[in-house]
Amino acid sequence: MDCSIKKQCGSCQYIGMDYQKQLLIKKEKCQKLFPHHFVHDVAGMEKPYYYRNKVIVAFNQKYEYGLYEETSHRIVPMKSCLLHDDETHQVLSTIQKILKKYRVSIYDEKKNRGFLRHVLIRRAVMTNQTLVVLVGTDHVMKGSKNFCQELIKACPSVQSVVLNTNRRQTSVVLSKQEKVLYGKGFIVDQLCGLTFKISAQSFYQINHEQCTVLYHRILSLLNLHQDDIILDTYCGIGTIGMFLAQYVQTVIGVEINKEAYKDAINNAKMNHISNIHFVNGDASEFMHQLAIQKQKVDCVVMDPPRAGSTKTFIEAIRTLQPRQVVYVSCDPTTQARDLKMFAKIGYQSHDVYPVDMFPHTEHVESVVLLSKLNTKKHINIELHTDELDLTSSESKVTYQEIKEYVRDKYGFKISTLNIAQTKQKCGIKERISYNKPKNENSRQPACPKKNEEAIIDAFRYFQMI
Ligand SMILES: C[S@@+](CC[C@H](N)C(=O)[O-])C[C@H]1O[C@@H](n2cnc3c(N)ncnc32)[C@H](O)[C@@H]1O
C-alpha cells in the first residue's frame, strides 16, 4: 500500500517499501549501533497498518486538516492515513463539519490570532473509546455544548472532549491547562489483561498490538522471584509495573508527569493491585534518593524518553546493585550510549531485541537485558591453544582489542590474558581457566561462565574462532 501525500507529509519515511525490507533495515541499523551484541530479528506486525492510536492534526483556514509538512508548519491536508484507523478519520471529518458549520475560528500562527490550534484524537482500541482534545487559545470555547452534542451523536465512540488552553507561541502542542467539556476527561483501554485509564496528558504506547509484544519480551527477559522488589522507572500510567506486579512482592513506579502519575494510582486501584506504589518525580533523582537510603532493589525496568537515561540514574544503579535491569528504548542511539556507561559500573548487556512499534517510519524500539557481574574486577584468564597465536605480529587481534571488547560489552577488566601454546586440539571452552568468583552460592548465573563467555564472544567477534 502506498500513500498519495507521502512526499509532502514526510512522517512515514518507509511507506511504500516492502515491509520485510523495512524490518531488515531496522535490524541493520541496530546492528550498527550495537556492533558487539547479538541483534535479533525485529519483531514485526502481521498487518502493519492502522496501528496508531493517537494523532494530532492542525486545521487551516479552509477547515482542511492534516499533519505539518516536514520541517515546516505548512499543513498537508489529508482525508485518510494508512497509520490511523477508520474511526479516527470518522471523528476528524465530523469535527471538520462542525467547525465549519459554527465557523469556529482557526488559529493563524503568523498573525497569532484565532482559536483552534490542534485536535488530538486518542483511541482505546480494545474498548472502542475515543478521547478528543481541542487545543485552543482561550479557556472558553463558544458553542462548546452544541459542538460536543453533535460530535457525540455522530460518533458514539467519543467518550470525552477536553479543552486544552495553550496561548504560548510554541511547537509544544499541549499546555497544562485543561477543562473537561464532555465526559470524564479520560478513556479506558485494556492491555495485557488489565484495564487502564488514560487521560489527555498521559503517555500511552501508540501501537497496542506491539506494546503487548514489547511487555511480554520484558517479562521473558526478567528472572523474577516472588520476594523481589522491582522498580518501573519512567512508568507512565503504570502499565509495565502493573503487568509485572503479579510475579513479585513489590513494585515501585516513578513518573514525572503528574497526570500520568494520578492515572497510575487510579489504575492500580481499578485493577485491585495493592503491591504497587507510585512516586511523582524525576526518575534520576528518585534513584539517587533510593541509593542514599540503601533501598533493596532486585530488578529495574527503565523506559526513558528518546533522550535516554542519565549519569545520576546509572550511578544510583551502581549503589543499588539490582540483579537485572531491562532497558526499553524508543531511540537505540541513546540506549547504545547508556549501555557503555552501564558496562563501566559492572553491568553486562545481553542481546538486543528490536520491536517494530512504528511500521513505515524509520523508528524502532529496542529492549536489552543487563545483568550484574558478580565478579572480581580483575581476572586472570589462561588460554591454551595451538590454533591462535595472538602474540605473533601477524595476528588479527591484539590483547588490547580483546580487553577493550570485554570491558565495553561485559564491564570487567582483564588484567592479564595468558595465551599458552599447546599441541592439543580441543574446544576453546576447555582451554580457558579463570579465578573463582567471590560468591559461588549466589543466585546469579555462575561468574566463571560469564567470564568465559565474554572471552569466547570476543574471539568470535574478531573471527579468531
Ligand atoms: C517512553 S514513555 C514510557 C511510559 C511507560 N513505561 C509505558 O510503557 O507506557 C516515557 C515516560 O517517562 C516519563 N518521563 C520523562 N522524563 C522523565 C523523568 N525525568 N523522570 C521520570 N519520568 C519521566 C514521560 O512522562 C513518559 O511517561
UniProtKB/TrEMBL annotation:
Keywords: Methyltransferase, S-adenosyl-L-methionine, Transferase. One of its GO terms (molecular function) is methyltransferase activity. The active site is at C330. The gene is rlmD. One of its GO terms (biological process) is methylation. S-adenosyl-L-methionine binds at Q205, Y234, E255, D303. It comes from Massilimicrobiota timonensis. It holds the Pfam family tRNA_U5-meth_tr. This is 23S rRNA (Uracil(1939)-C(5))-methyltransferase RlmD. Its EC number is 2.1.1.190. Belongs to the class I-like SAM-binding methyltransferase superfamily. RNA M5U methyltransferase family.
